[in-house]
Design brief:
This protein is α+β, with helices and mostly antiparallel strands and about 400 residues long. It is built from 11 helices and 14 strands. The strands form 2 sheets. Strands 1, 2, 3, 4, 5, 6, 7 and 8 form an 8-stranded mixed sheet that branches. Strand 5 and strand 6 form a beta hairpin. The radius of gyration is 22 Å and the shape is globular. It starts with 9 loop residues before the first strand and ends with a helix.
């Protein structure tokens, strides 16, 4: 976890509001001292939580000042009452801060189908506003945790237009994680000046390379949100898609988002291993993605990772149902540099022993060459352990 999360112009705080009981931080507030360019990327699920729907509407302006977030209850599948609660919670923050309620974004994570108790916000929001500080982002990273075992934060520094620029991000997520905006929340703050349209394009591109390439269990949530605020206090010339400095800022943002995404996979519910699944030689990038994601989401493959069993048959079987076109007698499979399968045939006990040695590592790659074109794709997954079942069997208990 990164400790230096301060970004010029931003303050934050977290409190115990009572949503998750008296002993857990469960509500956070991030505030910018001025109107900021803002963008968001949200779940592709047809079932969207009330805060997601509200934020999509409010971000159409490309501006925001604050984000109010709670854990414990997702405010999803909560009907008109849920939307009313999201609006009312945001209004409490807006009134307390003296800003337009349309500049307040709201976010929730937790159990689906339960109603938020507005009394928790009536108690918690004033405490948040009183507690705002430049050091508060660290506490917010703890307040948004659900089944996470550790907070997830990242910082990047970059020079833009001759000005030092900082980006800081925090995220949560450990289960119900799958590409297409992976149950995750992510908030990124920067003092760069970026035009809203450019910020939106950069965030979408960055999420495609990061959060949309991770999977823990193959499930997509109702609340997935990645939100970025850029307040311009670094005083660089505002970035557009073609302006000098856009590429440097984009690389820093991409790197920060990937860092957060990999932290989510490392902390996957019950996970003991971080695995990169890399496919080359596909007919197209799209088919490489099909192949990689099918392997990465296979329960049989993931349990073999946990058991440190170099059972390559499960991998080639997953490839076979992926929809990618290939000749089974041309496929190569390696764990890191340990070649296990060449032209669709296993290389024997010695190769399996070397591959098993790789599987004992906490992090490794599965490298698959389909030898059918130039398409390539990589995604990130973890193993399935006994603890995953235990965590999800009593999630609401």
């Amino acid at each position: 976890m990164t400790s230096d999360l301060k970004v010029n112009g931003f303050k934050a705080a977290a409190v115990r509001s009572g949503i998750r009981g008296k002993d857990r931080l469960d509500m956070g507030l991030i505030v910018c001292e001025c109107s900021a360019a803002a963008a968001g990327v949200f779940t592709t699920s047809r079932v969207k939580a009330a805060p997601v729907l509200l934020d999509i509407e409010r971000l159409a302006s490309g501006r925001a000042r604050a984000v109010l977030v709670n854990s414990g209850i997702a405010n999803a599948c909560s009907g008109e009452a849920g939307m009313a609660a999201a609006v009312a919670a945001g209004r409490l923050a807006a009134d307390g801060l003296g800003i337009d309620q349309r500049e307040v974004l709201v976010s929730s994570t937790g159990v689906i189908g339960e109603q938020l108790d507005l009394a928790c916000f009536e108690k918690g929001v004033p405490e948040l506003i009183r507690s705002l500080s430049a050091d508060g982002l660290t506490e917010v990273s703890r307040a948004i945790m659900t089944t996470d075992t550790v907070p997830k934060t990242a910082v990047r520094h970059v020079e833009v237009d001759g000005k030092p620029v900082k980006l800081a991000g925090l995220a949560k997520g450990a289960g119900m994680i799958k590409p297409d905006m992976a149950t995750m929340l992510a908030f990124i703050m920067t003092d760069a000046a970026v035009e809203p349209a450019c910020l939106r394009t950069m965030l979408r591109a960055g999420c495609e390379r990061s959060f949309n390439r991770i999977t823990v269990d193959g499930d997509t949530s109702t609340n997935d949100s990645a939100i970025i605020l850029a307040n311009g206090l670094a005083a660089n010339r505002p970035l557009t898609g073609s302006s000098e400095g856009s590429a440097e800022f984009g690389r820093a943002l991409n790197d920060l988002l990937k860092d957060l995404a990999l932290q989510i996979v490392r902390d996957g519910e019950g996970a003991t291993k971080l695995v990169t699944v890399r496919v080359t030689g596909a007919r197209s990038d799209a088919e490489a993605r099909q192949a990689a994601e099918t392997v990465a989401n296979s329960n049989l493959v993931k349990t073999a990772f946990f058991g440190e069993d170099a059972n390559w048959g499960r991998i080639i079987a997953a490839l076979g149902r992926s929809g990618a076109e290939f000749d089974q007698y041309k496929v190569d499979i390696a764990f890191d540099d340990a070649l296990l399968v060449a032209d669709g045939l296993g290389l024997g006990r010695g190769a399996e022993a070397a591959a098993t040695g790789v599987l004992r590592n906490k992090e490794f790659s599965v490298n698959i060459d389909l030898k059918n074109g130039e398409g390539l794709y990589a995604c990130y997954t973890c193993d399935f352990s006994l603890d995953y079942v235990r965590i999800n069997a009593d999630y609401r208990s």
